[in-house]
Amino acid sequence: MAQTITVKVKLLPTTEQIQRLKQNSNEYIQVINMLVAEMVEEKKSTKKTTKDVPANLPSAVKNQAIKDAKSVFSTKVKKSKYTIVPILKKPVCVWNNQNYSFDFTHISIPLMVEGKSNRVKIRALFIDKDNRNFDLLKHKLGTLRITQNSGKWVAQISVTIPTTEKTGTRVLGVDLGLKVPAVAITEDDKVRFFGSGRENKYMKRKFRSVRKILGKQKKVNAIRNLDDKEQRWMKDKDHKISREIVNFAVENKISVIRLEQLTNIRQTTRTSRKNEKNLHTWCTR
């Protein structure tokens, strides 16, 4: 048995590297959107290769974009019988595990430099407070996603960790969402719902409304204080839900809690205008 998690690493790119990351990230999602649109029109998956993709991206990155576009088409478009056509909005760039490396001070990736693919070393902060990242990154590595969150560049490395589950071990599966923040189900089909998606969306709308008023009044400090208050409220809700899940697990003599794979939870799609702001501002810590 194995579990896939995402290790987040803060990046400290130079000004020049930031420009290259922005260029690569924007082109990456443009390629995916273009390929998905073509597949929707033709009603079938693309057979294009990197040579058929006109983008200023390294071949390895083009190849990954083609894979991601096929995945979006099969899991979103075809599954919805063409009623949902996702459009990626948030700039992001992805490399497979054969096209990046790191030495715990830098991450090395291929980027386009003056029209040619060159490996670029970007300073990275791998050290966390308990050195947990060092241990996690010793396992099987998956894709590397680099994106910008709140002005900061972050690398997200997918890691597959083997689990040692013995016969008789009881497992609790937990699925995360917006309408219902968390749903837990045991192996004998006991189900419990946690949190209120309606309440969460109401509070998010309330905070956005107040923030809009303060923005018109140019009250910058008040907006910052409001943002801090919103984050505290969100973290409190997350903490209470996680505690309820643990209590439910204890009541049912659960040994392992397995979360859904969250590797691509921030991959931006316009599947619901009503939910998109809640998805991309919600706390994931």
Q: Can you describe this structure?
A:
This is Putative transposase. The protein has 285 residues and is an alpha+beta fold. It has 2 domains: 2-162, no CATH class; 171-281, no CATH class. Helices cover 40% and strands 26% of the residues. The relative contact order is 0.14.
Offer a concise description of the structure.
With 285 residues, the protein is of the alpha+beta class. The chain has helices at residues 15-42, 59-78, 132-136, 197-216, 220-251, 273-281, and strands at residues 2-11, 92-95, 101-102, 106-113, 116-125, 140-149, 152-162, 171-176, 182-186, 191-194, 256-259.
Q: Which terms would index this structure?
A:
6 helices, disordered C terminus, four-stranded mixed sheet, globular, about 280 residues, 2 domains
Low-confidence stretches: 261-285
Number of strands: 11
**Strand pairing plus helix content: what structural class?**
alpha+beta
| SSE succession | EHHEEEEHEEEEEHHEH
Strand order of the largest sheet: 2-6-7-1-5-4-3
Query: Number of domains in the coordinates?
Result: 2
Strand content: 25-35%
Number of DSSP helical runs: 6
Q: Strand count, sense and closure of the main sheet?
A: 7 strands, antiparallel
Radius of gyration over all CA atoms, rounded: 21 Å
Helix content: 40-55%
Give the overall form.
globular
Domain Probable transposase IS891/IS1136/IS1341: 159-265
InterPro entries: Transposase (IPR001959)
Pfam family, one: OrfB_IS605
Protein name: Putative transposase
